[in-house]
Protein: histidine kinase
Organism: Shimia gijangensis
Amino acid sequence: VRYDVTLTHIQNPAFQGVLLCFTDVTHLRTADQMRRDFVANVSHELRSPLTAILGFIETLQGPARDDSAARDRFLSTMAAEAERMNRLVGDLLSLSRVEEEARRRPASQEDMDKLIRSVIGNLQTLADENGGTIAYEPAKSPIMLRADPDQMRQVFSNLIENALKYGENGTDVHISVRNIPRDSSLKGPAVAFDISDNGPGIDPIHIPRLTERFYRIDSHRSREKGGTGLGLAIVKHILNRHRGRLVIKSTQGQGSIFSAVLLRD
Ligand code: ADP
């Protein structure tokens, strides 16, 4: 707990003394510290690809000027680094947009089945490339929920992509829909979209921190897989805006279940 303390001398005929005033500024300090950490993290994340690109430019202008094989190799590495910066900026923009809209509830009723199918269609190539599979078990009857379609697509996309990405030799991803008569946290009837994988699983100590911005279990592996460290933070904010929450369950060595739980209207 942090306090700001002010000291005032009181001198009048009735009373002489000092007045100490303690103001609890824990909230302000924490918010301030978080903002500073965030800016430091963003700068660091942008600087490393930028430094690599600048280094390659220097080499191409100097020692590797006439080496066409090296030039091709360096150019493709530079393209990959630029792509990484592009992804990061894209995720930062998504995050700030979601935060901006946090108080505005989405207006349109969306068919969740349609959204999930379109996301699976987009990720099929990634699954094939990784030697993984995506299986989907839709709900018996259509589920219409008040949702922002682009944002909900992003939720499913981030969760399914993570499930595919973090498995060693191809992951089998299973998506199913579950009715919750009454969700104790959301305080009402809800529906859960469970995205399960048979990947490496997650050590329980990491689970509460996974939705923090830039929190990764293995930074090297996340970067290698094209991760920005913002995916689950975006998911959490979108679900909050939709009166929902993210529930993570995992068993090391067996796999994980990421559940997007949404309140029914
Ligand atoms: P990233 O861009 O690094 O994927 P995320 O916010 O999406 O960032 O995820 C944070 C971290 O959570 C990842 O770096 C990874 O270590 C871990 N993670 C997320 N999903 C899974 C999963 N399905 N299986 C194992 N680890 C996961």
About this structure: The two ends are 39 Å apart (CA to CA). Residues 158, 162-163, 166, 197, 199-200, 202, 210, 216-218, 222, 227-233, 256 surround adenosine-5'-diphosphate (CB under 6 Å). Residues 250 and 256 are 4 Å apart (CA to CA). Strands lie at 3-11, 16-24, 109-111, 133-137, 144-146, 172-183, 188-197, 244-251, 255-263.
